[in-house]
Amino acid sequence: MEDCIFCKIIKGELATELLYEDDQLVAFRDIDPQAPVHILLVTKEHIPTILDIEERKQGLIGHIYRVAAKLARENNIAETGYRLVSNCNKEGGQTVFHIHFHLLGGRSMQWPPG
Ligand code: AMP
Questions:
Q1: Which residue's CA is the closest to the ligand 1 atom numbered 13?
Q2: Which of 67, 74, 73, 77 has its CA nearest to residue 104?
Q3: Which of 38, 46, 98, 100 is catalytic?
Q4: Are 31 and 40 in contact (CB under 8 A)?
Q5: Is 100 tagged catalytic?
Q6: Which of 5, 30, 42, 70 is most buried, judging by how many CB atoms fall within 10 Å of its CB?
Q7: What's the gap in Å between 26 CA and the centre of ligand 1?
Q8: What is the distance in A from the centroid of ligand 1 to the CA of 30?
Q9: 17-40 pLDDT, tens digit each
């Protein structure tokens, strides 16, 4: 997708340090961190929202959770705790329409979120 900022990062058109990469995902730090650790896990395929995940792609979600746990351990937030969240559509707070999960940690999280 030509205008998608995350597609540009995945294609290497926007210099961004990748913390993780495999055939399905990349991970990099959020440009506007909401916690001491704020990493985005982004699917390589341009899928606009989590509503668009087809049945054949369900394994992708489990994979995202496993990679998030690995990154949480590497960033020393696994034991203290973290939040893994994906915003969907306008009222869910989604601003980039390419599936991603926010891995947040390093501070106490509020519930319910604002
Ligand atoms: P959401 O609002 O859930 O769609 O999350 C989009 C996230 O992408 C926001 O937290 C932004 O700060 C982040 N973001 C936007 N552009 C960039 C970028 N170039 N590099 C890293 N993070 C970005």
A1: 30
A2: 77
A3: 100
A4: no
A5: yes
A6: 42
A7: 14
A8: 6
A9: 999 999 999 999 999 999 999 999
Structure tokens at 82: 């973290």
Tokens 């980039």 correspond to 96
Under CATH, what is the fold of the domain 5-105?
HIT family, subunit A (3.30.428)
Are 88 and 94 in contact, with CB atoms under 8 Å apart?
yes
| Nearest ligand 1 atom to alpha carbon 29 | 21
Model confidence over 42-71: pLDDT tens digits? 999 999 999 999 887 889 999 999 999 999
> Where along the chain do its domains lie?
5-105
pLDDT score for 19: 98
pLDDT of residue 36: 98
Residue 96 C-alpha to ligand 1 middle, in angstroms?
A: 7
